[in-house]
Write a structure and sequence with these properties.
- The protein is mainly α and about 130 residues long.
- Helices cover about 65% and strands about 0% of the residues.
- The chain contains six helices and no strands.
- It is elongated.
- The relative contact order is 0.15.
């Protein structure tokens, strides 16, 4: 076997066997900072983070565990039944707020919805201030 037969041009072979697919279509939107602020101002109040939901869920769980496992005694003249009642009210309130946050979290806008709202608001004509 001749060493010249083993010589190959890697670049030529690579380019000769290379297939390039062009899939780079991109939408470009030009808008102003004010239009983005308006769109975000309208969309962000509906947004609920996962952290808020988890905070309320953990508070509710902690209160519920304390309520189920604790035997409240009289403290500083406050009867144990009053403390139990306070924990029941706090657990119910935290549970209601947790359900509220869960509903908000489930119906929060997606990133695509926020982007579409910004695009929609940016294509609206500017209001005359005259």
């Amino acid at each position: 076997m001749n060493p010249d037969d083993l010589h190959t041009n890697i670049g030529t072979n690579l380019i000769g066997n290379l297939e390039i697919t062009d899939n780079l279509k991109q939408e470009v939107v030009m808008t102003t900072r004010d239009k983005i602020k308006v769109a975000l101002h309208e969309m962000l109040p509906a947004y609920s983070s996962t952290g808020e939901l988890l905070a309320w869920l953990s508070l509710t769980a902690g209160l519920l565990v304390a309520l189920v496992t604790a035997d409240f005694k009289d403290v500083l003249g406050v009867p144990g039944d009053a403390i139990t009642g306070a924990f029941v009210l706090a657990t119910v309130a935290a549970g209601a707020w947790t359900v509220r946050e869960f509903v908000r979290w489930c119906s929060r806008p997606t990133l695509d919805q926020v982007a579409e709202r910004i695009i929609k608001d940016s294509t609206r004509p500017a209001r005359d201030t005259d």
